[in-house]
Write a structure and sequence with these properties.
Blueprint: E1 3-6, E2 13-16, E3 19-21, E4 25-27, E5 40-42, H1 46-56, E6 61-65, H2 69-80, E7 84-89, H3 103-113, E8 117-120, E9 124-128, E10 135-138, E11 143-145, E12 148-151, E13 155-157, E14 173-174, E15 186-188, E16 193-196, E17 203-204, H4 209-224, E18 236-241, E19 244-250, E20 258-264, E21 269-276, E22 279-286, H5 290-303
Parallel strand pairs: 3-15, 5-12, 6-7, 6-12, 7-8, 14-16
Antiparallel strand pairs: 1-2, 4-13, 9-10, 10-11, 16-17, 18-19, 19-22, 20-21, 21-22
Amino acid sequence: MVHFAQELGNDESIEFNKACLAMGSRPVRPAVAGVNLGNVIYLRTVRDALALREMADIEKTVMVVGGGLLACEAAASLRMMKLKVSMMHRNAYLLNRYLDSQTGPWLTDYYAKHGITMLIGESLNGFEGKTVLRNIQTKSGNRVPAGLAVVACGAEPNLDLVRNTPLSGPHGSPVTEYLETEEKGIFAVGDLAFYPDRIMGGVRRQTHWENARGQGLIAGANMTGKKRIRYEQVPYFWTAMFDLRLHFVGDFSIQPTRVDLRGTYAKKKFLARYYQGDKLRAILLCNQTEREVEAAKKELRHALGK
């Protein structure tokens, strides 16, 4: 079957047999005043990162809004550049979407010990300034001076190209285990793909580049090869901040009912197994070797009977 697409910006049409949607995602802009002021940065692209580095050479007081992976990585990097950094996060501790109620506060305290001012439990109310950022206001009424703000409040998939079609859903672009949409010959990967998780169960969308790379290889093979390949990888991503390297293996979408911690926070080297009841659902590794990460993936597969 031949599909048709229309180029954006002109009336030229191109014909194709197969296509892969890989448009990535864009930053969520909070619905507050001042989001378009100068020196308010939304990180997503290399250009954004370069602009931030250039501004950081001039402005030495930075507020990072958010407490997820990108916010934590940005705050750690800016602090290591000797900038005065604050973090505003509305939840009780950093990485609350992934970490348990003991590890999360430990990480938050670790940031504070590295000289980052933590505004935990504070929500953004707006950015203040005439043309360039001068202050950040919280919903509790606090006003924090800042010459630069990095906003990392999440991302949403770039689905404008397929908006109002079956290829666009509330959680991304639904795909099969082969990463193919319901439109035969059209695939989706990375931040867009809402895929069935053959290992953990359910459906999920992952926004880490490692996932996008792995899915790109599978989708490319399925578009060009005769033998179709299922995407059936253990959910996995990693992050680095200060001298910590954290690996997340499995499903961290639900808080564990039990945590088995091996190692210590004090030594910054540990492995935490997350259980739902008696079922192992995820393994968190801090400053462990690649061999140990691969062993954790195998352990989780074995525990799930996969």
